[in-house]
Amino acid sequence: MKTLVTGGAGYIGSVTTRLLLEAGHEVTVYDSLAQGHRAAVSDGARLIVADLGDADRLDRAFRAGRFEAVLHFAGLIRVPESVEDPARYFDHNVARGINLLNACARHDVGRFVFSSTAAVYGAPDKVPITEDAPLLPASPYGDTKRVFEELLLSYERACGLRTARLRYFNVCGAHAGLGEDHRPESHLIPLILFAALGREREFHIFGDDYDTRDGTCVRDYLHVADLGRAHLLALDALDRGGLLYNLGSGAGYTVREVFAAAEEVLGRKLPCKVSPRRPGDPPALIASSARIERELGWRREKDDIKQMIADAWEFHRAHPTGYPD
Ligand SMILES: NC(=O)c1ccc[n+]([C@@H]2O[C@H](COP(=O)([O-])OP(=O)(O)OC[C@H]3O[C@@H](n4cnc5c(N)ncnc54)[C@H](O)[C@@H]3O)[C@@H](O)[C@H]2O)c1
């Protein structure tokens, strides 16, 4: 399939691009490189360095590429930044995304897979979270994703686009030499590994007085390769539209448990400090992924948190200061 991957030079997009190429897709990556890395784009994929804000460039890419499918990973991803500057988040994650949807409509693209997030649920009362839980985002970031999900349904009705909305929980690990290199980094496992590499003085646990088994927040960690494989399944299933799936492991680990697992994987003690809670961090976020397992037969191959950390560590050891740019 001729497939466009927006944000394909970023963490999840680069891994999924690799999997698409291995599955025989013809892949074009569209990425501004504002956050992504040229070195993360696999040989075999064509790279267009441009922003989604450039509607003319998008149009030309669609005319030349004759895409049958779009996987949309591009976007801004930091919750605290979205609280400080919500307009920027609505601009990038919604307004520029509309350029992409309009290009899909103009060029008769049939299939569209969107990277949504657990942040659309806010702080839910019930875990594991199922897809029909109320959408109550607690940040502008989550709100931009909720709004874009709504837009997808409107474009389905108006333009015949068939869409899959995939709500990811905490993504981690590395695959085929491709890993996580956000600048600045805000995700838990890389930050633990940065403390191991001396890139951070210590790892901060934000709050140890939550109502959880050891007082620290519980999150659901999913290996990036398992997430990438879910995209390929969703793409294949888009003969019909309206797909909506949570993607997590269904297991929750506390911050302290992940930290202890990292110490075990690395075989040494790591520096750590307890800091106050961050506003808006819910105590527990755990996905129910039963629907995609049942409907598309998705199975995780890398469920063990130590395996996820070991894969991430391999990437960070090979790239102690990140990808070369
Ligand atoms: N990483 C996670 O744990 C996680 C969890 C839930 C949802 N998500 C979603 O998954 C997607 C990918 O996340 P990631 O961790 O790979 O992020 P990332 O920052 O590594 O990748 C995003 C990529 O999009 C590009 N980009 C951003 N805005 C652009 C624009 N306007 N035009 C062109 N390119 C642009 C960046 O340069 C970057 O390469 C995001 O949409 C994010 O909201 C990620």
TrEMBL record:
A GO biological-process term: galactose catabolic process via UDP-galactose, Leloir pathway
Pfam families in alphabetical order: Epimerase
EC code(s) of this entry: 5.1.3.2
Enzyme class: isomerase
This protein's UniProt keywords: Carbohydrate metabolism, Isomerase, NAD
Reaction(s) the record says it catalyses: UDP-alpha-D-glucose = UDP-alpha-D-galactose
Boundaries of every NAD-dependent epimerase/dehydratase domain copy: 4-248
Source species, domain of life: Bacteria
InterPro entries according to UniProt: Epimerase_deHydtase, NAD(P)-bd_dom_sf, UDP_G4E
Cofactor(s), names only, from the UniProt record: NAD(+)
Pathway: Carbohydrate metabolism; galactose metabolism
Molecular function terms, GO-annotated: UDP-glucose 4-epimerase activity
Family note: Belongs to the NAD(P)-dependent epimerase/dehydratase family.
The protein's assembly and partners: Homodimer.
Protein name, UniProt field: UDP-glucose 4-epimerase
Species the sequence originates in: candidate division WOR-3 bacterium
